[in-house]
Design brief:
3 domains, Phosphorylase Kinase, domain 1, eight-stranded antiparallel β-sheet, disordered C terminus, Jelly Rolls, disordered N terminus, binds 2-acetamido-2-deoxy-beta-D-glucopyranose, 677 residues, Transferase(Phosphotransferase), domain 1
Length: 677
């Protein structure tokens, strides 16, 4: 329909050559009546409009701008009649053309090879009129032109058969004969279609046989000899059309779609076949926008697109993984704890992704990793504590933060925290010399501590615990005092770690059935009984710790018969027997201060008293250790207890419940055994 105006026909307007006026190629007896252009470099054509000869010798009829026309004529008129008033003679023309379209499936309007009475076609229109006629004169007998159109649009007003056809036009653009573009195979006569806007070079032949007054138009792909059967054959006596002389040349026009129309070679002969065009000498077509680009794009674009999409995908996955990797839990209420909040990413990088070679240890609360903060370059220990309950988390974090404000030379400094789903990370000062239990058990290459060191550590820990109990804003119960929770700094000072952490396990549970955590061998009897921690349950554990340091034994030890025995009971027995100093670590080989050793052992027993009321406060403990007050005499009746029996009376079998000695157990479990009956 109207869309059909997008066709770009190539109309070949044929002029009758006047033998006398022939220019170019060969010559003939009665003047030059034939010529051949294998490329147009150096030619002298009459050009107008957009028509131009490019540097490479292409005749470019239109240049890619829309709604324009261009003409190229042989510069001199040709004598199509042997004599003025005679009949139009036979002639033939051949040319190589190509149509380059911006869009692979759309082109616009036309080129024609035409024979016209004049080279002045200024009144002709572009677009579907192909620069040959206008809306008023189209079809008028006074036009006196003949054209072979190569049309890539279907214009219904001219009754075009399709948008890819070849037609014979007399005086107007409505073809008297037309055929879909293509050629008939010489071998079997089958028809092969050709796409005029493919951008390929094609050859056309336009022939007039005056004997029978017939016009034949034939096209074929470049390099193929002229097919025997013409594509379009029209009976018309051109003697009734052409004036004498007439011009031969090309006319082309564009519509709204940009196309380029090229003639690469052209030959013409009067009274005989057109001379052969030297295909090898034809200029190269430009690597114009659409075609060559689409070739590149056809291959590269999908690859590039796929690569791009894959890259995007990988990036997205990496981003999501990164987000997941560094994902944290953060709630509004945490804002006030901002300065104490570490980002998971920082901790992740500080510990090299929590690699195993950064693992310092694995305690009851979780794994501890060594890390170096990239910002401050300070060494930290990062404790990963798993927690599931969100309930009470706010209180706990508040407590952690407030604990973080506690500063004491015998407490391991808590620097801050980070929260993730199901995980709490606590960041502490790094203690280069590790935990005390290693030194006491003297395994591997760990050096043994001499008595002076032990005594200093004991006093340090007592001072730290005193601070927690009595010197800070509020009472902090440590709940898990033991040798493995005492860490040694650079100067081998004992520092208490992990304080307040046991509270973590309180949260999110019914306060009536508090889940307490402690370590077997350090548990005060009333703690076992009630599950309620107090400063005095800390003192009890501290007592066991004192004995542990002095004796170099685990709180649950083996006697020479291989039976298991509580350290307290063992020391107490020696005390009853008056052989207290025999319990001092034999590895010291007697190199210790007897008074101090006695003090520590007796204080250990006093602190480990089964009756909470009989235990000293930490302030008193400090006074005793500093020598400011004498340790009260232990009355034998006062101390006629057997801790093991006591615990067993409570229904707790430490041998079953307490191994390995460092393992922790939830007090809920203990309650299940002892309570509920
Ligand atoms: C081109 O042809 C025209 C017409 O014959 C002539 O006047 C002009 O001199 C020619 N120019 C060249 C460069 O040959
Ligand atoms: C085509 O030619 C016309 C006139 O000759 C000119 O105005 C236009 O800019 C040209 N277009 C291109 C794309 O070269
Ligand atoms: C073509 O027309 C001319 C003049 O009208 C006439 O002399 C000639 O015989 C015609 N040719 C044919 C083949 O009919």
């Amino acid at each position: 329909m109207e869309v059909a105006c997008f066709l770009l026909p190539v109309v070949l307007v044929l002029y009758w050559l006047n033998p006398a006026a022939a220019v170019g190629g060969g010559g003939g007896g009665d003047g030059q009546d034939q010529f051949v252009f294998s490329g147009f470099a150096g030619s002298n054509l009459t050009l107008d409009g957009t028509a131009t000869v490019t540097a490479s010798g292409l005749l470019e009829l239109t240049n890619g701008s829309s709604q324009l026309k261009g003409h190229a004529f042989f510069p001199v008129p040709l004598h199509f009649r042997a004599s003025p008033g005679g009949t139009v003679r036979s002639f033939s023309a051949s040319f190589v053309f190509a149509i380059l379209s911006t869009y692979p499936s759309l082109s616009c309007h036309g080129i024609a090879f035409a024979v016209t009475p004049s080279t002045d076609l200024t009144s002709a229109l572009a677009a579907q009129y192909m620069g040959l006629a206008n809306i008023d004169d189209n079809g008028n007998a006074t036009n006196h032109f003949f054209a072979a159109e190569i049309d890539t649009m279907q214009n219904v007003e001219f009754q075009d058969i399709n948008n890819n056809h070849v037609g014979v036009d007399i005086n107007g653009l409505r073809s008297m004969e037309a055929h879909e573009a293509g050629y008939y195979d010489d071998r079997n006569g089958s028809f092969h279609g050709m796409n005029l806007i493919s951008g390929e070079m094609m050859q056309a032949w336009v022939e007039y046989d005056s004997d029978v007054a017939r016009i034949n138009v034939t096209i074929a792909p470049i390099g193929m000899s002229k097919p025997v059967r013409p594509l379009v054959s029209a009976a018309y006596n051109l003697s009734d059309v052409l004036v004498e002389p007439s011009y031969a040349g090309f006319s082309s026009a564009t519509g709204p779609i940009n196309s380029r129309h090229y003639i690469l070679g052209w030959s013409f002969a009067m009274n005989g076949p057109a001379p052969a065009i030297d295909i090898a000498k034809l200029p190269k077509l430009p690597r114009l926008g659409p075609k060559p680009r689409s070739k590149v794009l056809e291959i590269l674009l999908p690859i590039a697109t796929a690569a791009f999409i894959i890259t995007l995908g990988i990036l997205a996955v990496a981003l999501v993984r990164r987000r997941m990797r560094y994902a944290e839990l953060r709630e509004d209420w945490e804002d006030e704890f901002g300065p104490h909040r570490f980002s998971y990413k920082d901790l992740f990088h500080a510990t090299d992704g929590f690699k195993d070679n950064h693992l310092l240890g694995e305690g009851g609360f979780g794994r501890v990793y060594k890390g170096v903060l990239s910002t401050s370059k300070s060494e930290v220990a990062v404790k990963k504590v798993s927690h599931e309950s969100r309930q009470g988390m706010k209180e706990f974090v508040a407590e952690v933060v407030s604990i973080g404000r506690i500063r004491h030379r015998n407490l391991v400094q808590l620097l801050g925290y980070c929260r993730r789903k199901g995980e709490l990370l606590l960041v502490y000062d790094y203690m280069p010399n590790g935990s005390l239990d290693k030194y006491l058990s003297c395994k591997g290459e760990t050096p043994m501590l001499d008595w002076a060191q032990r005594f200093r550590i004991v006093k340090g820990v007592a001072s730290g615990l005193l601070y927690l109990h009595e010197k800070w804003d509020k009472v902090v119960i440590h709940r898990d005092i033991k040798a493995s929770n005492v860490l040694l700094d650079k100067e081998m000072n004992g520092r208490l770690g992990d304080f307040g952490l046991a509270r973590l396990h309180d949260h999110g549970t019914d306060p009536q059935t508090t889940h307490m955590v402690g370590t077997m061998g350090y548990l005060a009897p009333e703690l076992v009984r009630t599950g309620k921690a107090s400063p005095l349950t800390d003192v009890f554990a501290f007592g066991t710790f004192l004995l542990e340091v002095a004796c170099g034994q685990r709180p649950i030890m083996e006697d020479p018969q291989g039976d298991q025995l509580l350290l307290v009971d063992w020391v107490l027995e020696h005390w009853h027997n008056g052989t207290l100093l025999e319990t001092v670590d034999t590895r010291l080989q007697g190199n210790y201060n007897t008074d101090e050793a006695c003090l520590v052992l007796r204080l250990g027993l006093l602190c480990s008293h089964p009756s909470a009321n009989a235990r000293p406060s930490m302030q008193q403990v400090m006074d005793y250790l500093d020598g400011d007050a004498p340790v009260p005499e232990l009355a034998s009746t006062h101390l006629s207890f057997n801790m093991l029996a006591l615990l067993q009376n409570k229904g707790l079998d430490p041998y079953v419940a307490a191994y390995p000695p460092s393992s922790k157990m939830s007090f809920g479990t203990v309650s299940d055994i002892s309570g509920g009956r």
